[in-house]
């Protein structure tokens, strides 16, 4: 049974664009590589042909997996989300209680996580710990080197 994944409109569009690129550009390239290798002679001793066939198989497997993800993707309706709690698509400003450092993260689906842009997955330890918290609450998060305590300072939606 496939699992349902939730995406923002931007994340779902990115996923669909990548799938379309694989189907319309990469698939014809793989077919052409097989045809070029086949034209080089005896297939039983043609390593280039074998490599092209294997690359095509991997590409088809990737396309199949992405089609499954897209078919099970659901768009998140931001208007239905509670703004008083940290939920997916919330931008949360937190303060590390041990060193006073403040950070701001946006909680997103696992496939959209990108730490460089401040987007962390709701399935990450910090993301899980922040889910459902309100302003003023303290999230205790188990990490490999102990427990971190983060105070939720602010929750917003962009």
Characteristics of this structure?
158 residues, alpha/beta, 39% helix, 3 helices
In words, what does this structure look like?
This protein is 39% helix and 26% strand. With 158 residues, the chain is an alpha/beta fold. α1 runs antiparallel to α2. It is elongated. The mean pLDDT is 85.
The count of helical stretches stands at 3
What's the helix-strand series? EHHEEEEHEE
For the biggest sheet, the summary is: 5 strands, mixed
Radius of gyration, whole Å: 22 Å
End-to-end CA span: 33 Å
Number of strands: 7
- Tell me what portion of residues adopts beta-strand conformation: 25-35%
Order of strands across the main sheet: 5-4-3-7-6
Q: Which class do the helix and strand fractions yield?
A: alpha/beta
Q: Which spans of ≥5 residues are poorly predicted at pLDDT below 50?
A: none
Which term fits the overall shape?
elongated
Mean pLDDT: 85
Question: Which percent range fits the helix content?
Answer: 25-40%
Give a brief outline of the structure.
The protein is an alpha/beta fold and 158 residues long. The protein is built from 3 helices and 7 strands. It is 39% helix and 26% strand.
């Amino acid at each position: 049974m496939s699992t349902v994944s939730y995406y923002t409109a931007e994340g779902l569009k990115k996923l669909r664009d990548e799938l379309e690129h694989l189907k319309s550009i990469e698939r014809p390239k793989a077919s052409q590589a097989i045809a070029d290798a086949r034209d080089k002679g005896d297939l039983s001793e043609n390593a280039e042909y074998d490599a092209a066939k294997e690359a095509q198989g991997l590409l088809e497997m990737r396309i199949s997996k992405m089609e499954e993800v897209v078919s099970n993707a659901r768009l998140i309706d931001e208007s239905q989300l509670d703004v008083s709690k940290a939920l997916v698509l919330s931008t949360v400003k937190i303060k590390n209680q041990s060193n006073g450092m403040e950070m701001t993260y946006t909680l997103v689906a696992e496939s959209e996580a990108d730490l460089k842009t401040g987007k962390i997955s709701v399935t990450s330890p910090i993301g899980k710990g922040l889910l459902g918290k309100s302003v003023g609450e303290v999230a205790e998060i188990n990490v490999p080197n102990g427990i971190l305590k983060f105070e939720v300072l602010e929750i917003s939606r962009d």
